[in-house]
Amino acid sequence: MSEIYEKWLREYIRVEKDPRSLRTRPCPSCGQPALRLLFVVHKTDRSIGWAKFWCDNCRKGVFFSRVSVPDWGERVTMEERRAVPSEELPGYEIIPPTTYSD
Ligand SMILES: [Zn+2]
Description:
Elements: H1 3-17, E1 35-41, E2 48-55, E3 60-68, E4 75-77, H2 78-81, E5 93-94
The chain binds zinc ion (ZN).
C-alpha cells in the first residue's frame, strides 16, 4: 500500500469516528483543511454506497466501494448525482492503493 493512500485511509477512519473533524482536519496530500466526504447510494438502499473522500483545495482523494454509510453521512443517489453541479461534486484525482513503484 502506498504511503499517501495509507494516510488517506487513516484520515477516513478518523472522520468516520468523529465526523465533526472533517472541516478542520488537514488534507493528507496538501495540508489544507478542505476535505469533503460524500456517499453515493442507490435509492433502494441508502445504507451501503460508495464513499467519495476528497480535498477541495488540491482535488486529490480516494474512493471506496461498498462501504456502510453512517447516519450522519451526506448522501446523493446515483440519479441525483447527475443533477449535482460540478462545483458541488468535482472530479478529482483518485489516489490508487498501490503504485507501480511499490
Ligand atoms: Zn488537499
